[in-house]
Structures are given as structure tokens and as C-alpha cells.
Amino acid sequence: FILWSGHRKCALDALELFTFRRTENYDPDLGLDGTYNHYIARGPCNQTVEGPSQIRYVHYLEAVLYSGIDPFEIHKVYLHNMIAPVGELKAKKPWLLSYTVKCCRSPVYDSSNASDSLFMLGGTPGDSVVMPLDIVVWGDVRVEFYAHKTKLPTSPKKLCMWFIFNPIFYKDKDTIIFKKSKLDVLNKDKANKKTEEDFQLTLNMSEEVEKHEQLHQERKFIDLFKSVGRMRKYPKGAWVLTEQSGDKLMLVTAGSVEGVVHEHFDGNQLHPLGRTIAEACVVDSNNSNDNERVPNICIQGVNSIIGASPFLAKGATMDFRARSSVEIYELKSKSSSRVATETTTDEDGGARASELADIEIEGLRGVDLASFYHGLCINLGTQLARVRIESIRIGSLKAFNDRQTVLADQDESEKLRMAVIKLFGLPMNEKLAVKLKCQCKSPAGKARRTRLMILTNYIVLDTEFYGPEIGPRSELIALRQLHSVAPAEINLMNSLILTILGERVHGLDIAANVNEYELTFNDPSRTRHVYNILSSMCKKAEDMRERERLRPFESPVMSSLLESCSRVHRLKRGERLDEASTKSSLFLVRTGEIRLVTNKNGDVFRLCREGSCFGEINFALNCIAGHYKAYANAVSIVLEISQQQVSRALLEDPILAARFYHIVCQVIDKELRETVEETFPGTWCRKSGMLQNSENGQMGSHNPHGKKKKGSLLRKKSHNLSSGGSFMVNSRKGLGSRSSSKTSINVPEN
Length: 750
Known about the structure:
Elements: H1 11-22, H2 52-66, E1 77-85, H3 88-92, E2 95-103, E3 106-110, H4 111-114, E4 119-121, E5 128-137, E6 141-148, E7 157-165, E8 175-179, E9 200-206, H5 213-228, E10 230-234, E11 239-241, E12 249-254, E13 257-264, H6 277-280, E14 290-293, E15 299-300, E16 305-306, H7 308-313, E17 319-322, E18 326-331, H8 366-395, H9 402-410, H10 412-424, E19 432-441, E20 447-455, E21 458-462, E22 475-478, E23 482-487, E24 495-501, E25 509-510, E26 514-520, H11 524-549, H12 556-565, E27 566-571, H13 579-582, E28 586-591, E29 594-598, E30 604-608, E31 613-614, H14 616-621, E32 628-632, E33 636-641, H15 643-650, H16 654-679, H17 687-694, E34 718-722, E35 725-728, E36 745-746
Antiparallel strand pairs: 1-5, 1-9, 2-3, 2-4, 2-6, 6-7, 8-9, 10-18, 11-17, 12-16, 12-18, 13-14, 13-15, 13-17, 19-20, 19-26, 20-21, 21-22, 23-24, 24-26, 25-36, 27-33, 28-31, 28-33, 29-30, 29-32, 34-35
Helix pairs in contact: 5-8, 8-16, 12-15
């Protein structure tokens, strides 16, 4: 900050000022030199910045300020291997090493997955040990080395050294040398007991696209985009992409853009740290109800893609604004429809023009079209790798600082939230929105005093509540099960009927197969508050079910491809799918449910239901990160789509390749959009509803009196519950209020 604000003009001056302010008895003769154990040092020392990677990034910032380097540019390089010399110490006592590589905190390589044995840093003095990588890296690259006690990869290990660097600051260089003093942890070995003083680590890398298939595909994608796209320039502050931009796909070729979240305080939406947005954010001075945020993970630089959602599936998009003067290439596909269509092929292998109707781009044919969507798949996979790991990190946060975190740990709501997550195995980013007591009448007809807990994507009914603990007989209701919410009767102000979808029949949601819960509260204001939250969740549940019905991999064209390139896994409840951690495959859940947990803490970060996919990042980037484990929550059938087998099969049919990668792009973009929406719950993800509400003079969350969207399955009725306001009922056809007598079966289109 000292350097960024201009208080000091160079990195050394900023570091020296920081050291001076941090040290009580500053010694000017020592300057930036100091011991690495100053808390217990007996002699004089200056408390300077100790970490070599920290110092490195201060100098990086100096290069950004004065050398015109864009830190948001996606600059990928091929990292071939790492070389370390063998000295006298390692010849006598070698290290048994494993190592990992992370890009923007997202794991992309783990030597334990790539090899069954450890690498020995030892041998004859003067020799060199080569540690292979053969990966593509970008952004902030963190390399960690672990020393194991035995030769087994599963043996206890200890972090022995690590470093962080960014390839954007080493353009046109084939090697980077990190001396011992530039390696974290190892730089503290001042007595040279672990390695010699001249120990160094050499990284061999290359920017040549011919060195790696991923670099080649992305370079070809950018060249194709520029050849058929139209170049436009925007000044700083101009809106580059909005809802009114249509289904344009944009490639940033100069400058950077920022995604903007306009948060509207409706009192119901939750901030990622658990509080409501109104409580967590600073109010915009221009609008008392709005707050504008620019999430760091939504800043896109050179070689980044924006506008993928409207281009691929006509979905909602975040507004993007130019951070500086920006050069953009944009294009539109020939078809206005982005819904995958069912097609057949003739026996002679004809042109299959109808098969290209939804993916064709003006000026691209055959192999070029397949290369375009393959490169787009890699680009979106790179974005998802960064966004997902940040969403996991943000979801695990409790507060903005340590003091608030301590208070959160002592808070009963936080303890209750963690108890619910632990009991039901829910993702860690679930936040507790409401907890209050009510009278609940179950479908069995028995009314009991119940504690109602509403989380981000779940509802919990606890009949045995004991403070921050949760009863083992509590009932969990998932978001996708929500059907409708309605007042019990017109003259009852404090009762709601919550309608829940029952068990699925052959993969279908049957509207007649429902359960009803009657919730009675002792205060009309609480009733209205709970209703507003549940009605928004019902709308969100319907959108979720609509998305789940779209299963592009189950078309005849894709089915024939997957039959030859996939493997079926039948899992029992609680069984682990080992291939998810050791292969660069795409996994399709055909039946059941799979939970993904982190290796570090064992926290659940995602639940994959029937019809959904996981492993998109490993498949798109062809990497074996192994940073999570997959377990079956129920008896499940999972289809493993091999990356290598699919690549070989698609070489023979470029049209099929274009369709396949177009579908993978849709899958990645859907996960990317939902992850950002869940992490940053702003109005950008509900913008269509807001614009609709603004026509009626109301701006904010779901407007009960807004016009019904054409083709929507929602039906809305108003009930005056009190003189102070009204309730709206969200329901499917055939359900909605207690007086409904009609029922219908909702069958997915496919």
C-alpha cells in the first residue's frame, strides 16, 4: 500500500519505511537486513519483511506501476521441469520429495498422483536431480516441496521449501533461477545445516505454443477469434457488456475489464460472510438501497473471455466495465438459438447442416469450428479454476478480521450452522438466514413445536432443539424440493403452507407427489419475513429444476460417442471414487448423488446430483490436481468420460468435435455462473426480474406484483394477510393455494 499510494516511489524505499515503522529500536546500519527469529533474538535486529515471496511481489508491484505490465493478463507458459543440484549434505542425507503446483490457488499438479514413488534429492555430489512437470501454468504460481520420512508417498511429510512467482514478469525467458535466499522456509537455514549456501532451484519453461497442446489450442482459438470477430475500443469507465448487449462473445485483447455486482438490500439475500447484504455492506451514497462491488475474481485481462453465458445458452451475464482503455473483439453465432437440438445423421455421413444450426459461426467451418470451441473450453476452464477455489476460500470465512471471527465462533448461530453442516454433510458455504420457533404440522397430521432453520440452499425442521445443538431426528429439505408457499387460509395471518416435492419417479418430478407442511408463527411480521424468503427460494428452486432438465450429453449423437469413450462406475453409499482424484476425466452423474470434499480439511464444497458433471477443470486443462475426493451419498452410477479417448475419437469427425466441446463449454459456463452467483449474491444474477419489476415502479428483489414472465410455470396470487402488506404465492401448475384441486405431471422435455 505504501508503494501503491505513492507514499514511496520504489520497492526498496517502501520496504525500508515498513521496516522502520515496524521496528521499535531501528538500526540504520542494518537497514533491511535482520534475523529471521527476531521475536527471540538477543542481539539487535530490524523487523523487516522476511518472506522472499513477499519481497518478490513488492518488486512485482513496482514493475506494474512503472513498466506497464498488466497483472490481469492471462499469460500461460509451458513448465517443463525443475532442476536442483546435489551437494555434500544431500549426498549424505537425501530428501525424499513430493511437490505440488498451484495456479491462482487452484491445484494443477501433484507429483503423488503423477508417480507412485517419491523423488530423491541425493546421490553423488555435483549431480543434478530433474523433477519433471510437463504442465501449463499461469497467474500466481505456488510450488511447494514436501520431505517425507519414508519412501512411501503416504508417509508423514513436512513442508521443506516453497516459492511463488508470476510468469507475466518473465516474458521471453526460458529459465528462472531461485537461489536459496529466495526460497521460503529454506532461506531461514542461515547455518547451512539443510543445504549448502549455493543451493538453487532452476525452472525450465517455454512460451512456444508447439511445446504443449493446450498452448497450441488456445493460440489457435485467439487467432480464429480475431479473424472472424469485429474489433472495438472502449474508453475507461465505459460499459463493455450489459444485458442489452445481446448474445455477444467478447475477447479482451488489450486492457482489462471488471465485473460489477449491484447489491440491492431486500433484507433476505445473504452476504458470503453470513450476514445479510444490508448489514454487511456499505450503502452507496447515490442510492440508499444499493451497493456496488467489483469482486477481484471478476476482473478479466488480456486473453480473457466475457459474455459466454448469453452466447452459449442465452443466460444472464454480469455487467462488465472498462478499467482502462480496452480493446475488444466480439462475435455472434449465426443461430439465435443456443439450445442443443436432437439430430440424426445419414448413413453416408452427409453434411448434417441441421446439426450445426445451434453452434455455427460465420466464417468458421469444420476443423476450425472444432478448434474454436476447444479453445473456448480451455479458456472457460481456466476462469473456473480460479473462481471455484476462491469461492471455497470465501465460503469458509466467518468474518472480515480476526476479532469478528472470534466473536463468530462464540455466536450461537455460528455453532448451530456448523452443527447442521456436520450432521447432514452440507457444503461449508451454506449460511444461516433464519432460525426461529414455530408450530409445524407435518404431512402425517401431527403438530409439534419446531425450530425452523433456513439456510442458503436448505431448510431444516428440528423438533428436538437444544440451544446450538441440532437433534438427530431433524428433517432436511433441499432447495430443489421446494414447490410452493402459500397462506393456509385467507383469514389466518400467521400460518403458511409449504409444499414439498416428494420422491422422484423414474427421474421425474411428479406434481401430484407432494407433501405439505403447515407453519404457524406467533407474529405476523415473522410470517411475512419467512414468506418473503421462502417465495424467493421457491422461484430459485424452479429455475434449478429447469436447468437440471437440460441434459445435452444424453442426446443420441452424444450417447454414441460416450459409449465408446467412457467407463461406468457403480458406487455404494459412502464409497469413494478414486478416479476423480487421479485422472483428467469428466464425470457425469447418471443416478444418485456425489459429494466433493477438500483434501485439506475434508469440508464438502459441492454436491453433484443426477444429470450434473464434475471434473470439468481437470478435463478442460488436462491436468491431474487431486485436490478433492468424491464420495457417493447414495447408490450412484457415474460415467467417466476419458479425456484421451475422447480426443482420439474426435479427430475423425470435426463436426462431432465442435458439438462436443460446445456442450462442455455450456457445462463449464453453467458451473462458473452459478459459483459466482452463489459467492456474490448481487442483483446481476436476477437482473431480468429486477428490470421487470422496475416497469411497475418497484426495484429490488422478487416483486410480488410484477408481470408474469412469458412461458413461466409460476402462477401468482395475492392474499391480503394484514393491512400492512400482501403475500404472493409461487406455485407450479395445478398447485399453489390450499383450495387447488387440479394436479399435473411435469415431464422433462428430454
